[in-house]
């Protein structure tokens, strides 16, 4: 007996279907976009990383920067796919050497991020990667940190963009690529 094999190429819609909405997390009124079903699927994770890396394959990327913590997951994988290094941006007190700080606003509060002072040399070509672009505060702080070290930001890539929150406006003229765009 011959069995049927589904040979369809997965696409962005297949990733979108794996997202899970978690209402009232981390506080009432917030609908959290849970990416763990994507992370749990080898095919979906591979596809997400490929979609994030693809727009930058023909550009020189020296370093991929990812913000704690989900930016680490996608950032390191994208760095590997682009043959680039990876630099983490972390919450205060998590990096062992001299750091620079940037404070930013979240859709549900404020926070601070840090980067090692020697993480990026002047002129280094940097791609910023994170799982989600919401209000843009986290990524704006990341950009500020990269800029203080005089890195050259080539672009920013996100798995998900909540377009209705207008986060792009926080990122000035940085080229932005989002795999999944949620309009409302």
What do you see in this structure?
The chain is an alpha/beta fold and 184 residues long. The longest helix is centred in the N-terminal third of the chain and has 12 residues, at 42-53. It has 5 helices and 9 strands, in the order H-E-E-H-H-E-H-E-E-E-E-H-E-E. The protein starts with 11 loop residues before the first helix and ends with a strand. It has a domain at 59-182: Rossmann fold (3-Layer(aba) Sandwich). The protein has helices at 12-18, 36-40, 42-53, 70-81, 137-148; strands at 20-23, 31-34, 63-67, 85-89, 99-106, 109-116, 125-133, 152-162, 176-182.
Q: Could you provide a short overview of the structure?
A:
The chain has helices at 12-18, 36-40, 42-53, 70-81, 137-148; strands at residues 20-23, 31-34, 63-67, 85-89, 99-106, 109-116, 125-133, 152-162, 176-182. The chain is of the alpha/beta class and 184 residues long.
Keywords:
184 residues; alpha/beta; Rossmann fold; 5-stranded parallel beta sheet; two-stranded antiparallel sheet; 5 helices
CATH C-level category of the domain at 59-182: Alpha Beta
Task: Give the strand order, joined by hyphens, for the main sheet.
Answer: 4-3-7-8-9
Sequence stretches where pLDDT stays below 50 over 5 or more residues:
1-8
- Strand percentage lies at 25-35%
- The number of strands is 9
Query: What's the architecture of the domain at 59-182, going by CATH?
Result: 3-Layer(aba) Sandwich
Task: Characterize the overall form.
Answer: globular
Helix content: 25-40%
Mean pLDDT: 92
Structural class: alpha/beta
Q: What's the order of the H and E elements?
A: HEEHHEHEEEEHEE
Q: Per CATH, what is the topology of the domain at 59-182? A: Rossmann fold
The span between the termini is 47 Å
Q: How would you characterize the largest beta sheet?
A: 5 strands, parallel
**Count of helix runs:** 5
Q: What does the radius of gyration come to?
A: 17 Å
């Amino acid at each position: 007996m011959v069995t049927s094999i589904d040979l369809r190429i997965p696409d962005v819609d297949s990733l979108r279907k794996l997202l899970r909405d978690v209402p009232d997390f981390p506080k009432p009124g917030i609908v959290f976009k849970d990416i763990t079903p994507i992370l749990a699927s080898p095919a979906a994770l591979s596809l997400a990383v490929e979609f994030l890396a693809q727009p930058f394959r023909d550009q020189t990327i020296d370093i991929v920067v990812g913000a704690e913590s989900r930016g680490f997951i996608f950032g390191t994988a994208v760095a590997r796919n682009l043959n680039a290094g990876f630099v983490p941006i972390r919450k205060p007190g998590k990096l062992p050497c001299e750091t620079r700080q940037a404070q930013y606003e979240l859709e549900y509060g404020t926070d601070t991020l840090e980067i090692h002072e020697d993480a990026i040399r002047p002129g280094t070509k940097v791609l910023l990667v994170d799982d989600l672009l919401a209000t843009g505060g986290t990524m704006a702080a990341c950009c500020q940190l990269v800029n203080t070290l005089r890195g050259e930001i080539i672009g920013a890539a996100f798995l998900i963009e909540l377009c209705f929150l207008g986060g792009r406006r926080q990122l000035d003229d940085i080229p932005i690529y989002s795999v999944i765009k949620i309009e409302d």
